[in-house]
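Progress note, sequence design subtask.
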């Protein structure tokens, strides 16, 4: 597995954060009115084992968080996204959304998307979306009928998929 890094952020003002390495990331939102945007893009290949864990902990009311993790696993690589949203008691009017999407590019690549919610109060909006899939063959076929090679078609689809 890739070297595990553990990082904690105390979020006291609205900000954007980009995750660029595997590891465990804890974002504690501690002030009312804070908006947090988290994104991460990962492309793993060969026999790499990469795990990214993101915990968004709402410790104040009237907060917002949007988390998007995208990844591609090639060859014999393994990619795991673990996402968790925690909203404490007395933290109403908090909104949080977690997206985890992984694209498999070989039959020997492995992936997991594991979302989790822990809601301890009412008056919140909190949800998640997770998917692990390969490139649909009809998408490749469509591009190939326009004179694009299979390799170019796959590269174009991956590039578009990884944009945030």
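Output:
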């Amino acid at each position: 597995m890739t070297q595990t890094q553990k990082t904690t952020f105390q979020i006291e003002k609205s900000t954007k954060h980009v995750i660029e390495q595997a590891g465990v990331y804890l974002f504690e939102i501690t002030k009312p009115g804070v908006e947090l945007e988290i994104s991460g893009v990962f492309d793993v290949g060969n026999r790499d084992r990469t795990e990214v864990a993101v915990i968004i902990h709402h410790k104040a009311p009237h907060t917002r968080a949007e988390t998007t993790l995208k990844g591609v696993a090639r060859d014999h690589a393994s990619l795991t996204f673990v996402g968790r949203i925690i909203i404490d008691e007395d933290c109403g009017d908090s909104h949080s959304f977690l997206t985890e999407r992984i694209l498999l590019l070989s039959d020997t690549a492995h992936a997991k998307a594991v979302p989790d919610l822990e809601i301890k109060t009412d008056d919140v909006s909190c949800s998640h979306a997770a998917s692990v899939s390969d490139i649909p063959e009809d998408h490749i076929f469509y591009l190939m009928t326009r004179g694009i090679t299979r390799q170019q078609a796959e590269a174009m689809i991956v590039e578009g998929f990884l944009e945030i």
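Strands lie at 6-11, 15-19, 23-29, 35-44, 49-58, 64-73, 78-87, 94-104, 110-119, 124-134. Work on this subtask will continue into the next period as scheduled.
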